[in-house]
Amino acid sequence: MPSANAVLRKPKEIPAEPEKRVRNRAATEQAILDAAKRLLAEEGFQNFGINAVARGAGCDKQLIYRYYGGLDGLVEAIGTNLGSWVQDRIPDDTGGMFLLTYGDLMERLALLFLDALRADPLMRRIVAWEVSENTEQVRRLSEARSKALAGWIDRMRGSLTPSKGIDAVAVNAMIFAAVQHLVLSAGVSGQCAGLALKTAKDWEKAATALKRIVRGVYG
């Protein structure tokens, strides 16, 4: 007859086999890239490091080396991603606007660029770095954005050309610079050279002025 202890003793439980963790490389790569962009937008390059990105992505830092080859590769990937940024924020369509002249084209691009820059903190950071930091990392990101914008113009303009005697490269650089300065100034002080940039009505006024400048040059 079995003892009372034997009767009361529970049978030894067999530990369950550990659940196998399925690693989705594409999802992990995207998480790392998103964390890196978020960190750059919030902290800048000063606190941009492997450990910080890994914490933000919730992954082992070795995966950053494996998938991106380290910080340089990660910056390169962010630069490549900026091309997608232009495609997403500045689509290859007319938005219902008939692009009959080169002025039509640049008006649409200027307004899209204004809205896109206002909505993207990382891109604002990159623009600010362009005029304050002369580093290889900043140059990569700046060149990637400039190349993507130039590609948009090439794809969209077709046979449209500026009037003879107009240096479109110089004029467009001034337009982009004006847009960038407006947005950066708004983020710092809510105004630019006395123009309030806080409400939707303020930005409508800025957009109207921007269109008039484009039309004043290109007609």
From TrEMBL:
Stored InterPro entries: Homeodomain-like_sf, HTH-type_TetR-like_transc_reg, HTH_TetR, Tet_transcr_reg_TetR-rel_C_sf
The keyword Ribosomal protein appears for this protein: no
Coiled-coil residue spans: none
Keywords in alphabetical order: DNA-binding, Transcription, Transcription regulation
GO molecular function: DNA-binding transcription factor activity; transcription cis-regulatory region binding
Residue spans binding DNA: 49-68
HTH tetR-type domain location: 26-86
PANTHER family in the cross-refs: HTH-TYPE TRANSCRIPTIONAL REGULATOR BETI, HTH-TYPE TRANSCRIPTIONAL REGULATOR RUTR
Protein name (Swiss-Prot/TrEMBL): AcrR family transcriptional regulator
Organism per entry: Rhizobium leucaenae
